[in-house]
Structure formats: C-alpha cells, structure tokens
Design a protein that fits this description.
The chain contains six helices and two strands; from the N terminus they run ααααααββ. It is mainly alpha-helical.
Length: about 150
C-alpha cells in the first residue's frame, strides 16, 4: 500500500502505463525500456520537488504494522531477523505493562503494605474501587477467557 502511494506521487499515469506494457515488449528491448522508464520517473521527481510541491503522505505505520508491511520484500534471513525483532518488541511491551502494574500497585499501597498479604476479597475490593470489575474467568481446560 505504502509503495503504491509513493508510486502515485513520484510518477505519472503515463509512466505507470509504460510499466504495464513492459512485459509485452520483446525480451531484448525490455532492459533499455526499463532504464528509460526509471530515468523518466527520476526526471519527473526532480521537477515535482523543484516546483515546491508538498508531499502529502498518510500517517506512518508503526510497530507490527510496519514490520509486517516489510515482510513480503525480505529474503529468508531478513524475515527471520524481522520475526526476532517483533518478538523482542512484544517482550518489551510486556515488560512495560508489568512495570505499569508495579507502579499501580505502589500507588494502591503507598504506605508500604504488601499486596501479598491481602486476601482475595480485599484485592477484589481494591480493583472494584478503582473502576475495574472482572467479568471474565479463565477456562480451566485451555486457558481461554470465557464470559461468566
């Protein structure tokens, strides 16, 4: 999608049609024609920028969406590296959530009272007073959340 937006900004409809015709040319003519198309795109881009056009783009992708959009262009080694990066980012998000939960617990127990010493009813009362009302229970068979 993002590459299509880039192509639409820095190319003309005429050049896009030329690209579609490229496979229909004799094999020995395709290389020179492809170079000519790229040269025309380069000249078009230079004129576009020189004339001071503002380049409008959609909001950039972030996180998994950005990494997923790169996957089709990766070889196997790059794909493995992206998958590892995604796992690392996911783990960092989990750590951030854990840190936020620890901060929340410190706010709930500012006097240093330890959450381990609370019984379940005290814990439920604390969460209810904070606006949290658990409406799900864990399914013992497969760990999925089911409505009560």
């Amino acid at each position: 999608m993002e590459t299509e937006i880039f192509e639409s900004i820095f190319s003309s409809g005429r050049l896009q049609m030329m690209k579609l015709l490229l496979p229909h040319l004799p094999a020995d003519k395709r290389g020179n024609f492809a170079i000519w198309i790229r040269l025309q795109e380069f000249l078009y881009t230079l004129r576009f920028v020189k004339e001071g056009h503002v380049i409008e783009m959609p909001p950039p992708l972030e996180g998994d969406a950005l990494l997923n959009s790169m996957l089709p262009y990766c070889d196997d080694r790059q794909r493995d590296q992206l998958q590892k990066l995604k796992q690392t980012l996911h783990q960092m998000d989990q750590m951030k959530e854990a840190m936020e939960m620890m901060q929340l617990m410190q706010e709930l127990f500012p006097e240093g009272r330890n959450a381990e010493n609370l019984d379940l009813s005290e814990m439920m009362n604390l969460f209810s007073s904070q606006g949290y009302n658990p409406s799900h229970k864990e399914n013992e068979n497969n760990g999925n959340l089911d409505d009560e």
